[in-house]
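Supplementary notes for students who missed Thursday's class. We covered one full example, reproduced here. Read the sequence, then the structure, then the short commentary at the end.
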Amino acid sequence: MSKFLQNSLIVRFLRNVVGPAAIMAAGMIGAGAVSTRLLAGTWFKFDLMWTALYVIPMVIFTLDSASRIGILTGGRGMIEMIKTEIAPALAWFVVVPQILLNIVVNMSQMSVMTESVYGMFGINLPDNGSVTAGKLIIVVILTAMVLAAVLYGSFKRLQKVMTALLMLILICFIVVAIKGLMNWATWAGLLGGLVPNIPDDVAVAGSAGVVRGGFRQMMSIAGQALPAAVFLSYGYFTSNAEYTEADLKKNFRKSVLNFGYIWGMFSVVVVIAGVTALHNVYKGQDGGLHYSQIASVSQAGRVIAPALPNVISFMAPPIFSLGLLVAAFTTTVSVALMMVYFLLDILGKDWKLRKGNKLFKGCLAFFIVLPALLSPFWNLPALIQAILAMAGNLVMAPLAVLIILYFINKEKYMGKYTAKAGRNIVLCVTFAFSMFVVVTGIIKLWNQFMG
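Structure (token representation):
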């Protein structure tokens, strides 16, 4: 019986998933991914599906290239390589903004977790974002739970925990999308959504002059998928897992499985959920919400209701809130790990998460606690916070891709694994796409400011 279980399809699947790619995928399938895709479907139907899917090969090849650099250079950190092989100033130029930005990212994740707790118990948030004793207590408890999960245990155990949470997130949103997939119109919408298109802005019902920006939402999806911190940190994760040259093919397969199949499926089902359960249902009739007004965790929690039998539809917000809580947790952990890797590496310290490295765990605790304690004072709906943080994440992506292109084409580092034409084409497309979105976003922001 034990041999049968070890060779079962589910066990073999999980064995293929577990690894650094699962940690990164679990972090990327976080509250930012949920909010950017769910609200894209809610506000713009399938018009931005192409962005969520077309970035997948960009992510796979860029992350695989970053991992190859780390593995084939004997586990050197990317920041140390930038510092010694290119210029120390460039290394600091990369690290300082990334740490500051990702503190904001984790502030948004803690805000999502806090709102999720309120949603799970059906409690209304304090009016106008007020900082109450109850809210602070929830933040402290959640912070303690995150710290306990990441500070006590090995890196391998962390991989397994993150993989289990990744599966839980995916299952939650597959359930949401099932009803929508049974409608032929959904499939027609999906096909139409594969045509690149930036939708017109949507006016928020009842709020004069307030709009949901189509380009801004596209930028937030791209920013969530193509953040510089993820690209530059992935080599640390594979090195921390003690991968060697013999693991290159295995690591690529895991990347395809995690970022291609799992993350791709996640992107599709969350957009479908937003379209079929929120956009097509909430039109503002009878005093209810208009789909353009949906922005908070409790409002978005209604997304699950159409997929449940009527007698238990009241469970929709708690189920959604639990899934979002887990999603925000996984991102919080991944982002904190990235910041510690960058900081310790540029300071020339031991940056590996392993038993006895007290400095690593101390820094990890700091990058979890600081954003958490600041989060109650950022007065915006949590899902909107996550979207803004993801859009900001994209700004340095073109530079990160150029750095990876530089090292992956250095034969003295890569040897026979020096990038071939196909890999370089995908990396160049990634650079061009991220540069286009960043430059266009800056121009739009400038015009808005000057206007």
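Commentary. The longest helix spans residues 88-120. Residues 20-450 form a domain with the Amino acid/polyamine transporter I fold (CATH 1.20.1740.10). If anything here is unclear, bring it to office hours.
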